[in-house]
Structure prediction request, 137 residues.
Amino acid sequence: MSKLPVVNDYMTKTLYIFSPSDNIHTAAKTLMDKHFSGAPVVDEAGNLVGVLSKKDCLKVVYVASYHQDWGGRVDEYMSREVCTIKSGTDIIAAADLFVESSYRRFPVLENGRMIGQISRQDILRALYDQWPGQGES
Prediction:
């Protein structure tokens, strides 16, 4: 069997990234308009400081419905506990991480820096590519 592909082979390298100081309304609208389930939040130095998901944005709407206050910044709502994956992780190990978690995506790190993002869809495609002919009649 040939060597398994790694996360770097299938990850998305072009990302929409938020800043912690971005307006939460603009960020939430971007996620909805672009049909993203979430996006990384990166500080001025390029460090990954969080992830903003549609679930996080739901909190904004929920709070606003009670307080009639739609203000705020991304860093007030983003998830700060971020699970990441290394770019050289093989797709089987990456698939295991997805199966064992509720996350839909993982930021990809190389030498401590974020270089991309891998999603469930990317891993599914990678696994499917490993077994050609499956699903054909």
About this structure: The radius of gyration is 17 Å. Residues 7-130 form a domain with the CBS-domain fold (CATH 3.10.580.10). The helical segments are 7-10, 24-34, 54-67, 91-99, 120-130.
